[in-house]
Amino acid sequence: MSDLQSVLMFFGIVVIIFVLFLTKEKNFLKKFLEDPKKKVHRRYINGEISYEEYKRKMAHLESCG
Fold first, then answer.
1. What is the pTM assigned to this prediction?
2. Phi/psi at 26 (nearest 5 deg)?
3. Which residue range is the domain that position 1 belongs to?
4. Looking at the 3D structure of the chain, how many domains does it have?
5. Model confidence over 2-42: pLDDT tens digits?
């Protein structure tokens, strides 16, 4: 197999896996493109992170701009 065929096969497999992942996660793009502050707040509201971790992450995001 030539190098070009190997590269094309690799990227084809990556695209197939990515498409399968997108179809499994319905809100993937919405979550991926979500504002980082909103994402941290949503995770805190859902109980995924503690209050201390929430404050630390928000302070970090504020310092980054």
1. 0.53
2. -65, -35
3. 1-26
4. 2
5. 889 999 999 999 999 888 777 676 676 677 777 889 989 99
